[in-house]
Amino acid sequence: xxxxxxxxxEQKSETAPALVIDSLASIRDMVSACIxxxxxxxxxxxxxxxxxxxxxxxxxxxxxxxxxxxxxxxFSLCSVCYYCTLRCPRGLPLTEAMSALKQIAAKENLAPYKxxxxxxxSFLESVYRHGRVRxxxxxxxxxxxxxxxxxxxxxxxxGIKLMGKGKISFEIPSKGNGALKAxxxxxxxxxQN
Amino acid sequence: xxxxxxxxxxxxxxxxxxxxALDLAEFGYxxxxxxxxxxxxxxxSQLDYQFPTDRCGMCKMLPLVDRDASSQYCLRKGLFxxxxxxxxxxxxxxxxxxxxxxxxxxxxxxxxxxxxxxxxCGECVKVCPVEVPDSFxxxxxxxxxxxxxxxxxIPNPYVIDMEACTRCGDCEAVCPTDAIKVSEHIxxxxxxxxxxxxxxxxxxxxEWLEDEGFTVNVAASGPEALDILSKQSYQLMLTxxxxxxxxxxxxxxxxxxxxxxxxxxxMTAYATVETAVEAMKIGASDYLIKPFEPDNLIxxxxxxxxxxxxxxxxxxxxxxxxxxxxxAYFNPSEGENTFGYGVYPNVVTSLDFERILSSxxxxxxxxxxxxxxxxxxxxxxxxxxxxxxxxxDADFCSFVCCMHAIKEALVAKERAEDELEAAIFYMDxxxxxxxxxxxxxxxxxxxxxxxxxxxxxxxxxxxxxxxLIVGHVDYxxxxxxxxxxxxxxxxxxxxxPGTAELAEMVGISLNQWGFCKAEPFSETLTSQEGILLGxxxxxxxxxNDSVIQAxxxxxxxxxxxxxxxxxxxxxxxxxxxxxxxxxxxxRVMVLVCTCGDTLSKLFDPQQLARRxxxxxxxxxxxxxxxxxxxxxxxxxxxxxxxxxxxxxxIGACIPYLYSRKTRELGRRVGLVPGLIHVVNLRLMDQLSxxxxxxxxxxxxxxxIHELSSILGMGLARLKWADPTPAxxxxxxxxxxxxxxxxxxxxxxxxxxxxxxxxxxxxxEEMLGGNxxxxxxxxxxxxxxxxxxxxxxxxxxxxxxxxxxxxxVLGSYGQVGRFYTTIEDKAKGTFTLEHGVTILxxxxxxxxTTSYNYDKSEAIITQKELEQKINDNKLHPSQLESVVxxxxxxxxxxxxxxxxxxxxxxxxxxxxxxxxxxxxxxIYIFYRDIMAYGFVESYYTQARKAxxxxxxxxxxxxxxxxxxxxxxxVTASEPIIGQKIxxxxxxxxxxxxxxxxxxxxxxxxxxxTVDQDGFFQEAETKWRPVDSIKEGVFACGLAHxxxxxxxxxxxxxxASQRALRILCHEHMPAGKVVAEIHHSLCSxxxxxxxxxxxxxxxxxxxxxxxxxxxxxxxxxxxxxTVCPNSASTLVGFSxxxxxxxxxxxxx
Lengths: 193, 1146
Description:
- The complex is a heterodimer of chains A (193) and B (1146).
- Helix content of chain A is 56%, strand content 0%.
- Chain A starts with 17 loop residues before the first helix and ends with a helix.
- Chain A has ten helices and no strands.
- With 1146 residues, chain B is an alpha/beta fold.
- In chain B, the strands form 18 sheets. Chain B has a five-stranded parallel sheet with strand order 4-3-2-17-28, with helices on one face. A five-stranded parallel sheet of chain B has the order 12-11-13-14-15, sandwiched between helices. In chain B, strands 19-26-20-21-22 form a five-stranded parallel sheet.
- The two termini of chain B are 44 Å apart.
- The interface between A and B is medium-sized, with 28 and 31 residues.
């Protein structure tokens, strides 16, 4: 079963299930020594686009405010540049904590992160098939998973622009020799543990 | 008069070292004060301005009792006390023995400039070709390899930086007094024998070592080496292992048999390292693996040389050691985040900025940045650089930096005449000390210092202007970018270099960050009896705490010396009583130092003698060469003993240097010290005015005139000097301690243990104060142990009388003799006589009506929580949510001070509750968490345990509402910018401490209380436990909010200050004290108001103004306000002063 096939049917539930709370506890442990000095927020290159600043996000994690956390797009905007982790005077694994939040959102298939989760998964599916990303295929997979017929139209201008610059390859993708499968299997095993 | 013979060693001559040394010296012990640096003063020699006065004030530490025993001079410039021997550039190399009888060995670094001969003319600096960054000015300027370690010391001999010096010898050639010995190496006597069968090896080693100044001989084989050894003694032998015939190991054995003291270094190829190791077992002291670099060899030989020198230094017996090694500071360029320090010239540390502030004086008071001389208009301070940073293993707060930054900001603003914008970026502003909070508020509201909460990560330099671009976020998350002219990094503490080695040598333990660790409930005691910690050696402290801790350490040291017999062996002072010369006309002997042949080369000294002899008071005039040297001084003493003058005038340079010598001379010939006077001839100044080598007749006449004028002023002073010895005050050698809490009990015990009677007055039935309900401290130490031990020792002490259920009704008297009336519920009213008073009346938790305290039983204070936990009346398992609110009614007017212990307590309680039930939600509302020093790590622990900390602003406090028995707390949470609402099972209010020092009690003893009701100290930093009125001291919570260990330290400090008075039967006053002519006095009492020391009182029975000569410090304020000239200052009579002025203009 490839990752895309694993995508379950959408949950309409707005509140996070019990599992979220449990996984939140481990994230809370990661950031418990936070003294809210704001270094992460000051350093984050994407903070301008976030609805909660990283400092506010950590505060909500400490308070266990799962409603607020999982309605915020802050962690989905993390570009994993590791600035905050590098600079945090308390040595907290902040980037790791961001990723952990993303994982919860993906695992629970939470509605606000539908787009980003599916994008990630489409990306991985393409990598799984060919060992690298095929842009055309990635977008096709993404459009299919979103089940929105108007979505490709939204992306059309961007696609044309990228094509003009020769950034999108039209080669027929090779199937690859399947060597990556072992790695994906291993990761799957690790994730299940 | 008897003298104690005990001795103590104080290691480190920073502020705490000086305090400890002076305390012990004033008590009568001999003190050896050492410092590895070539100057005293430690870090404070680089800090010119201190909070809260924003001035210096170090001199206030000088003795006020028997003050003529020490220098009365700027303490930054130098220190002298007749019981203190100062040894600079000296390190402690070994400690043996037991408390009371330690054998210590000291090692002085070789000095290439003789400090006695150096006159500080600076000729050497002009010729020195080496230039290096000046560490005193934080590397902002350069200095030569021969330099002054501090610019202001007196005497200030030059020293040579051995690492920078090229040994060119130019300075030696120009030195006028032959004080410098560079080429004639002092280690020439250290003889080295090099044994190797290879000519090239032994010859090159010989050459390297001879270049370093060692005496070297060579041998090609074992037998030859033994032959050479038998002819002359050698201190070190370097031998090859593999040699034909007799090998190195055999040579070692034979050499050691005949010359057991010789130190041997084996030289070996890599293959025979094991042989070399074996050789070390049979007596070789080290080995070198061939091929080696010359530097490695030279370094090892130097090490052996130093060990040899140290071994030749005789051990000294001391009773106790006080370690005042200070701290080092974090270097940002070595950290993970450098903030551009060392790269951007305008990023400086707080210490560098001190030098910039100081050098502003040199720039005509303008505050400019050193890189481009641009006037400073906007400066930012970054707090917690190198502190509170777990990543670099610094989970501690550095105690002083917050106040340091505020002070620097204020001084900078003042220097720039308020045209400077100052911003401090901080996480918690730790204003936990007495008066700190008001200082901060003033900085913010009155002087406009901006306080920005948030940590800045990095700095970018604007390439064109050199300005610094700082990006930061506020609470809402808004990014801001600001330009600053300069950024000051408030650098944190690190253990002083050598701390680990010293700790290992004396066997004391270190904490996890490498600072010395004190025993529980003590700041000064270590696991080794007789080895005490003073000042910042156990973690950075501000001046006030350093001084308190140093006095406390001095007390503990004194106790060790005392109990091991150090002060029981009393020896009478051998000197004769002073001669009574009041009936004799002045016979002044004038002794003029010619400074080698400098003066006699210019003119015939007899010309000057003839001029001086026109004064009938002058008996004889002598000229001496170099009175500053031991031989010169001996000549002088001989002349004095031969001719027996009744007054002595010495003309030399730096009169200050002669303080100790003139006192000794006075004792020897029976002259009151005031009758020996030293004037500064300023010979070097006179010479520098000359245009060429052979001066004209006019110039010589001018010099003679100048010299006779200087000497004439001295003569005028001496002729009118009062020949009577300084007055003395009889001391009733008993003490009264008011208050029987831990501070009072500690103080009483400390004094009684020194053999003086103590009366302890306590209003309650039980002794113990707050410790009766306080069970543990933050570290988990049980208070009962210390309480029981102290109470037990106190109650069985034969010299302590405890009066419980008693109170002081009134008191009368002054230092030396107080009469205090006590009302005892059981025994009635009685009067006590005592020489000193210690107020330890304590404090208690403040009561409150805020936060609906009285509306619910579940809203309690910290003390109530503590009691509930102790009595098992609180069941953490039944609690779901606990809210703690810090700074209740505190840190805002009228109680605008931090109580220092409440944050500790909340952390302690929160951790305790979390331990018993990890599921409790604990919320702590705070303004700034005052987890100062190593308490910070408990703050981290509490965070990790899941305690939620919510900051609040004083303008928007949390609200506690009680509805139907349930409690809700609403507050705005600044980080998320939202209102939050919490249900609480328990609300704990940190109400802080209020003192219990009744005004009438304070008034009875003549002490003042500050606006918050705490004891007002004479000087917050330099005399922290003294009151302005001599003989009254305070400690414990009556003094200021403190934790148990800190309270005990104040108690010990106060008893040490009291003991330095109690130890005298008669306390000598200074030679300059005020006098009063009662016939001229109109009793207007202006002088009583004018006296800053409370030394004057109006005796209503006698109808006279009375002066206590021991309290009078000779400032002369009374003499200036007296309308009738009835008040005068001894040694400054009108006639005398007018005569001095006449001589000056003659």
